[in-house]
Amino acid sequence: MPELGPYGREAALLHPERGTPGVRDSSIGGPLLWPADEPWPTCSVPDGESSSGAPASPMVPVVQLFAADVPGPWWPEGSDVLQILWCPNEHWDAPPHQADVSPVVMLRRRSSADVGAVIENPPAPLRHEEFGYLPQPCVIKPEHLVDFPFREELPHTLRVGLQQLVDGTGPEGQDVITRVAGWKLGGWPTWHLAEPWAFKCEVCAAEMRLLFTIASDDATDVVVGRWGDLRIFSCVADHRHPFEVDLH
Questions:
Q1: Using CA atoms, how far apart are residues 16 and 35, in angstroms rounded to an integer?
Q2: How confident is the model at residue 140, as a pLDDT?
């Protein structure tokens, strides 16, 4: 179906497996290549269960990716490391660009060549939800693919053909072509609970595309929402513009 060509997006499924990654490894829930002279990040949202004046809770590593392990269109000039952290607590009144009833997410890009001494013992969170928000250390086995959108994100003239292609390709009718599920860099977002919608950058009004999907799974012990996905969207015009977090 060559008409689908313009809608294909590069993606990388991470396929996490329990392991012991190091600071210079791509990982989920592993140690980060974090400079020793750079303060460890803390949650920006007041902790509703802490007494007044309590310190902000340190964030925990969720994922670290190196461009050498997952090359693709996701790397702005001057950076080869992508790090995502979160506060392992649900916040019902989330700050702008964050998802309600979810961990508050932080994203950091850096150049590995600029990092000398690395922090050895980052602070642990002051408290955390009992289930789902402390990713277990996993190594990853990236699988590169071309991801296609859900049929309702396509012009009407292509939807029937795509559905026929999906039905004839996947085992027992499973969709292995569009918005492929899992821990994913790039690609298209999953839509199984709501109609698709588009995010626009509040700074420049440019399109925002899916950058990363944090998936609920047994390998990492991560559970977001009702066994859902936490998706991070970034501005296609300038990666420095605020990102958007969505729970699905």
A1: 25
A2: 98
SS3 6: helix
Residue 159 CB: number of other CB atoms within 10 A?
14
Task: Give the separation between CA 140 and CA 96, rounded to whole angstroms.
Answer: 31
Angle at 177 between CA 175 and CA 180, to 5 degrees: 80
pTM exceeding the 0.90 threshold for the entire prediction: yes
> Does residue 166 sit in helix, strand or coil?
helix
pLDDT digits (tens, 9 = 90+) for 117-130: 999 999 998 888 76
**What percentage of the chain has pLDDT greater than the value 90?**
72
Nearest to 82 by CA among 61, 97, 103: 61
Cα 229 from Cα 247, distance rounded (Å): 6
- For residue 49, pLDDT beyond 60: no
**Secondary structure element (H or E) that encloses residue 165, with its range:** helix 156-169
Contact between 215 and 184 (Cβ < 8 Å): yes
Which pair of structure tokens corresponds to residue 17? 């497996």
Neighbours of 85 (CB within 10 A): 24
* Strands 138-140 and 60-66, sheet pairing: unpaired
Q: How far apart are CA 32 and CA 83, in angstroms?
A: 8
Q: What is the 3-state secondary structure (H, E, C) of 31-46?
A: CCCCECCCCCCECCCC
